[in-house]
Amino acid sequence: MKVRLILAALALALAGCKGESAVEAPAVHAESGLSVVPLTITSKGKVHRFRIELAQTADQQAKGLMFRTKLGPDEGMIFPMNPPRPAGFWMRNTVIPLDLLFVAPDGTVLNIAASAKPYDETQLTSAGPVKAVLELPGGRAAELGIAAGDRVQW
User: Fold this and answer.
1) For residues 103 and 149, what is the distance between their CA atoms, to the nearest angstrom?
2) Is 70 exceeded by the pLDDT of residue 42?
3) Which residues, listed in sequence order, are joined to residue 88 by a DSSP beta bridge?
4) What pTM does this model have?
5) pLDDT-based confidence at 113, cuts 50/70/90?
6) pLDDT at 16 over 70
7) Could you report the per-residue pLDDT of 65-79, keeping only the tens digit for each?
8) pLDDT computed for residue 12 by the predictor
9) Is 3 exposed, middle or buried (0-12, 13-18, 19+ CB in 10 A)?
10) Which domains are present in the chain?
C-alpha cells in the first residue's frame, strides 16, 4: 500500500512538470563574466556549433580575448557592430592565436584573418562593412573547412 502511494505521488509530481520548462538563466563565462550564446556556422552542408562569449559594450570589445591563455575548440567571442561598418582588429596583449571571421550584414563570412599571431599589432581588416567579428581558436576555421560565404547565426 505504501509503495502504491509513493508511486502515485511520484507520478503526480512528474505529471505536473511535464510540458513545462524552467526558465534558464543566461549562461555566463566563468573567466570573462560575459554572456555565452550558441552560434552556428553552416559550411558545405555541415552545421558547426559553438558557445560564444558576447562582447557588447565598448569596454568588453576593447578587452576582447586579451590575456586569455586558453580557448576551447568550440568556444570564441563575437563582437556585434550596429550599425555595420568596416572593422580592424589587432592582437595586442592576446596570448593565443586566433581566427577572425568578419561577418557581413547578410550573415555570411565576408573574409577570414586566419591564425592571427599573438601580440602582433598589425591591423587585420574586414573586406567591407560587417555586422560582427567572430574570434575562434587559431586554425579552427581551416580545420572545419569554414570559408567566405558560409552562414553565421547567433
Assistant:
1) 9
2) yes
3) 125
4) 0.83
5) very high
6) no
7) 999 999 999 999 999
8) 46
9) exposed
10) 27-153 (2.60.120.1140)
How many residues are present in the chain? 154
What are 33's three cell numbers? 563574466
pLDDT (tens digit per residue) in 116-130? 999 999 999 999 999
HEC profile of the chain = CHHHHHHHHHHHHHHHHCCCCCCCCCEECCCCCCEEEEEEEEECCEEEEEEEEECCCHHHHHHCCCCCCCCCCCEEEEEEEEEEECCEECCCCCCCCEEEEEECCCCEEEEEEEEECCCCCCCEECCCCEEEEEEEECCHHHHHCCCCCCEEEC
